[in-house]
Structures are given as C-alpha cells and as structure tokens.
Amino acid sequence: MKTEKKRDKAVAISYNEEKDNAPRITAKGSGITAQRIREIAEANGIPVHKDDDLLELLSQIDIDREIPPELYTAVAEVLCWIYQAELELKREIQK
Fold this sequence. Notes:
Largest sheet: 2 strands, antiparallel
Number of domains: 1
Strand order of the largest sheet: 1-2
Radius of gyration: 15 Å
Structural class: alpha+beta
Strand content: 5-15%
CATH class: Alpha Beta
CATH superfamily: secretion proteins EscU
Low-confidence stretches: 1-5
Number of strands: 2
CATH topology: name from scop
Helix content: 40-55%
CATH architecture: 3-Layer(aba) Sandwich
Order of helices and strands: EEHHH
C-alpha cells in the first residue's frame, strides 16, 4: 500500500492585545511558502511550534482573520509555549 507523503504546511499567527480581540492568521501556505514562513520566523527569532492537528485547523482560516473561539484554548497553549521560549532565549542572551 502506497502512503502519500503529507504536504509541508505552515501557519503564522500574531496577537496584539491592544488592538486584536483574538490572535489572527498572518500567513499560511504549503511547500515552498511554508518553508519561507519558517525561514522568516527563524531569521527574526520567532519560535516555531509544531502541532499537526492545530495546523490543519488554522490553515482553514483566511489570512488576516481572527481565530474562532473554539480554538482559543489550543492557540493560548501555543502562545504560552512561545512566551516561555522567548523568556528562555532572553535569559541565555543575558548570560
């Protein structure tokens, strides 16, 4: 039985608590576009989190749209992970 290789995907989200009601999708794509999203994140020191199930859900949302309330908890967990990763990185830089 031949198994199809999963296509490489990426979704970028942002959240500005002063102007956004919820995190929003800022970029998404597959293949080369997904690779470029990750390269831009890495070049800017933005942590990348891998969650295939959440990725599938987020990739269905249009760019520049807020995530729906049913995804708040899952995205909040990712944002907590990102904030922790950023804190750890800042501590390492200060050493």
